[in-house]
Amino acid sequence: MLMMARHRSAVSDYVVAGVLVFGVITLIAIRRGLAHIRQLDQVSLIDGLTGLSSRESFHADYKELAANDEELAVALVDLDGFLMVNEHHGHAIGDEVLRRCSAILNTQVGDEAKLYRMGGDEFALLMSGKLAGTLLEGLCRNVIERLSRPLQVYNLSLTLGASIGLSRCSPGKPASASEMLRRADVSMYASKRAGKGRCTWFTAEFDANRAQTRDIDEDLRQALVHDQFSLLYQPLVDCDTARVACVEALLRWHRPDGKSIGPDVFVPVAEQSGLILPIGLWVLRRACMDALAWDEIMLSVNISAAQLRNAEFPVQLGQILEETGFDPGRLELEITETCLVLDPVVAERSLAMIRNFGVNVVLDDFGTGFASFGFLRQFRFEKLKIDRSLVEEAETDEASRAVMLSSVTVARAMRMKVTAEGVETEEQARMVRAAGCDQIQGWLYFKAMPAAEIGKYLNRPLDMASIYLGHSSAQAELFDEPERKIA
């Protein structure tokens, strides 16, 4: 019995010791786990790639500052052209670009505002206090100027730039961190649509416009299904023969309720949603089918930057030419400088494939933006179209006239034909003829018209002095709006 009692006591001691050891081990594990969790929390507040504060840190800081009941201002910075850096040079270069840009932003911002990496190529700035919005806007303009300079990454010289959206809330009118970021995001995309490299403040109109854009987008999808689009054609007159040499296809949308929406309204919406791709193919196919009846003249169709960036577009173009039987040598595709500036490498590759079909390429709206003689030399267009604004200015301004004359001279030296757009007066017509333009397009000779009317203007020269439309303000209502393009 004594031996059994001693044995039970020993077992009891082992059990107690085991429980104590287990408890100590458990306590250590809990402490280590809590320490690890705290460490993870700290990591989540820091962006691993750039070392900047993270999105989680932004929300925490914003909540703390909002409790002070002061003016709060937020800026969302998006790097322009970063996607192309990743696509062309790989993610390793892209990551290094993000690190370099983070360092630049850190230097520019200093202690004036708090800086965060929100993910991808987006950064945020947060500032509070009196005049926070005004001070943050000034800081953002400095950021844009600095990021517009070439960035040296290894052996590459990269130019990105930045677009910025700004939002603020006044004391007594609080907004959540998520709402402030949403407003800044909306404003940032407004900066991109306006040409990039700028900062834009959020206004209530942006949300109203977004609602309108959503409605137009939904209606556009129905318009494609129910065939609500139509084409008009505006003839171009040859300056030497006084005959119609070409017609340009112009897209129109007539809704079932009787309202007509201009391309300047619905085309940007279609470009944002991606609907411009099927709409553009519809225009191209319809125009080729209509123009089969006009075998002695050229057909000109506008294509958007989105179409040119689409790797499948050259193949789709070839299919349309084959399906319709349209002669590719009679087709001109008009592109704007935007198509080239956004991604010149992709544009050049697509244009080379398009030219392989025998299709002509035209640079539209020359004289309105960044397109230079370097563009003409690099892409070697078959035709140059001088924008209506330059024609109007050249009529009264000597500097604009000199630009127009030099443009025509360079284009002809490169064996490009030249068209003057938006010619509305005999004086303008005489001026562009004297400058050496090959073709004239504008209300002076023709308004846009349905396909059925084109035939009666073919096969005969026009009296270029007597067919001036010369409409008064009352007569203007009888004619189409000034020609607008699909792109």
CATH superfamily of the largest domain: EAL domain
Helix content: 40-55%
Q: How would you classify the helix and strand content by structural class?
A: alpha/beta
Q: How many beta-strand elements?
A: 16
Q: Return the CATH topology of the largest domain.
A: TIM Barrel
Strand order of the largest sheet: 8-9-11-12-13-14-15-16
Overall morphology: elongated
Query: How many domains in all?
Result: 2
The number of helices is 19
Main sheet attributes: strand count, strand direction, barrel closure:
8 strands, mixed, barrel
The CATH architecture of the largest domain can be named as Alpha-Beta Barrel
| Share of β-strand residues | 15-25%
The residue ranges in which pLDDT falls below 50 over 5 or more consecutive positions are: 36-42, 466-487
The termini sit apart by 103 Å
Radius of gyration: 32 Å
- Look at the structure and give the CATH class of the largest domain: Alpha Beta
What is the typical, i.e. mean, pLDDT?
84
